Amino acid sequence: QVQLVESGGGLVQPGGSLRLSCAASGFTFSTYQMRWYRQAPGKERELVAVISSIGASTIYADSVKGRFSISRDNAKNTVYLQMSTLKPEDTAVYYCNARRGENEYWGQGTQVTVSS
Questions:
Q1: Would you call 17 helix, strand, or coil by DSSP?
Q2: pLDDT of residue 37
Q3: How many CB atoms lie within 10 A of CB 94?
Q4: Which long-range contacts (CB under 8 A, 24 or more apart) does 17-21 make?
Q5: CA gap 52, 36 in Å, rounded
């Protein structure tokens, strides 16, 4: 069955870094666009970053440009989100998303908390 399993979340101080991973299985990963979303308490889910199926193009939300970097390893069926210079407002549950046409899959999310 399809699985997207996020990992790498945790508690980090402001200014720190984290790398999230999302391991995919059950579908042809290399043909899917991959996305990271996040949802803070009391807020709507927000698109953070997008990477094309072969990794040739990326898109970022204005709020994370220059601080976050999305990448993928199609040989490992894994997408990453490198987060640097973290701010308290980056605190949220981060979700991995796979999309191709009408097909869409979600992970269960990983909590990122930025606090001193």
A1: coil
A2: 98
A3: 23
A4: 17/82, 17/83, 17/84, 17/85, 17/86, 18/83, 18/86, 18/112, 19/80, 19/81, 19/82, 19/83, 20/80, 20/81, 20/83, 20/94, 20/96, 20/110, 20/112, 21/78, 21/79, 21/80
A5: 12
Cα-trace Rg, the chain: 13
User: d(Cα 87, Cα 50) in Å, to the nearest integer?
Assistant: 20
* HSE-up of residue 52 (Cα within 13 Å, Cβ side): 5
Whether the CB-CB separation of 73 and 19 falls below 8 Å is answered with no
pLDDT digits (tens, 9 = 90+) for 42-98: 999 999 999 999 988 999 999 999 999 999 999 999 999 999 999 999 999 999 999
Q: How far apart are CA 13 and CA 4, in angstroms?
A: 27
How many C-beta atoms surround the C-beta of residue 116 within 10 A?
Answer: 8
